Amino acid sequence: MKRGSTRRTWGDANMRAAGAACAAQLPVAGAVAFVLSLDDDTYGAAGGPAIGLACVVLFAPLLLPLLGLLHAAVLTLPACRLGRRAAATRWGRGRGPEWAWSLGCLLPVGAAWAAPFAALGAPFVALALWIAASGVVPALNVAYCRRREERLGRPLRKVWILSGLASLGLCATIVGAAVVATLTGFIKEYEPPRPTTGQLAGVWRGEGGEAELRLYGSGRAELRGCDADAAWKVGVDTVLHRPAVLLEGRGAECGASPAWIIGGTQDDLELFVTSGDPDSPEVEILRRG
After folding, report:
1. Mean predicted confidence (pLDDT) in 256-285
2. Contacts of 3 by beta carbon, 8 Å cutoff, 6+ apart
3. Residue 141 — pLDDT band, cuts 50, 70, 90?
4. Phi-psi bin for 254: left (phi > 0), alpha (psi -120 to 50), beta?
5. Burial per residue of 222-258, b for 16 or more beta-carbon CB atoms within 10 angstroms, e otherwise
6. Predicted model pTM
7. DSSP-derived secondary structure letter, 154
8. How many Å apart are CA 252 and CA 232, to the nearest integer?
9. Strand (E) or helix (H) holding 77
10. 99 neighbors 83 (Cβ within 8 angstroms)
């Protein structure tokens, strides 16, 4: 194939290379997130992380190619174009390969996409770094496919198939290793703490910082918005079958939950209640004030 013909198909080849790599890395990232969540509190969600993994397996074949191409269009390819132009300037010529310039340009492109989300309250620096990091593998794959295409004199074929097989192999390896690590005890699934009455006594506050619940060592409890006091004790919740702070008396009848599930860790305790869909419940969490 002539070089001019290669250039005419350059954009499509880059799109395939970047989209396939991005689509391949998403299941791998999901598998890693699944493994890391095995020792997390599910806050009563039915099925826990296994539900999320099942959804990924079910819908991934339909969504991943679209997400990969979208990611390539808005992040990877703009960074590669900027890197190519920067490498071709007088200042950039001879100061590193084009792919290195493309990786460097991921950060400003990621920052540009992070800016509108930061205006809505998201952490700008962390979000910009995560967005930029998501383009590293696709950008490297673009550079690799470009070199192979120039060497072979024709566009690469089976890019999507090879990326899919690589992703499947990595996911199977990660999940298999996690199963072995769980069976051997190297990774332990989450177990709720079992604190004493003295460890639970104190002021518990919600997300807004307001005191929601006061637990006294004497067994008396005060609830925000309730005129009457309640009594409390440590027991077991009848729904989730987990250790919980059980409220009794007139104060527990003023709209407050009669049971606050004990979560968190032994060193960082939490109390929470759930409502709504059992598979994806709304969670209200109290932490010691």
Report:
1. 83
2. none
3. very high
4. alpha
5. bbeebeebbbbebeebeeeebbbbbbeeebbeeebbe
6. 0.70
7. S
8. 9
9. helix 77-88
10. yes
